Fold this protein.
Amino acid sequence: MQVLVVEDERRMAELLKQGLEEEGHSVVLAGNGRDGLAMAETHPFDAIVLDVMLPGIDGFSVARKLRAARNQTPILMLTARDTIGDMVEGLNLGADDYLVKPFSFEVLVARLRAVSRRGPIPQPVTLRVEDLTLNPATRDVTRGDRRISLTRTEYSLLELLMRRAGRVVPRESLIEAVWGFDSDVRNNTLDAFIRLVREKVEGAAGPKLIQTVRGVGYCLRKEEA
């Protein structure tokens, strides 16, 4: 599973990431509610582990906004607030389960497995920008009649840009969504991967699609004449 963990306590986030990766899962971390919401809106996770007490936007608000946007990714909420009212509020806002801190990691893994059993998250059959297509189900990428082979990181960057086609994606959002908020990836690393994606997607012919917005980030759209 690909799991988004939204947790502002760095030590807790790192322990969850390490433990879940040892269980064979792929984990992306977000350190606050705004970043967690942005990542959940732009990337197809299999499940979200969501802390309630978060800076910026709390977990309840994140869950409410995701469900209002028809994002049905399974959510397991974590909190130190163990009152019945808090639990009911979280579940009513769309959380699939609720785990009170401190908890056993084995219990968290079992709960996470249970909430994810509803099946894969519905995704558009094909993402398309001009003659560039990406199929999230098969991970096939084509440009016209040409099939494009991408590494895992290259694919993640392209998918994120295609899901937000026409909008500028800030550098920080790309780095956090693909490598995690606690990574030490720098802008030059991101630029190097974008260059690789450009070379494979654009080649020497056809309109340029991946546009650089200087000082901000990147945008996937047809190059203006």
About this structure: The radius of gyration is 18 Å.
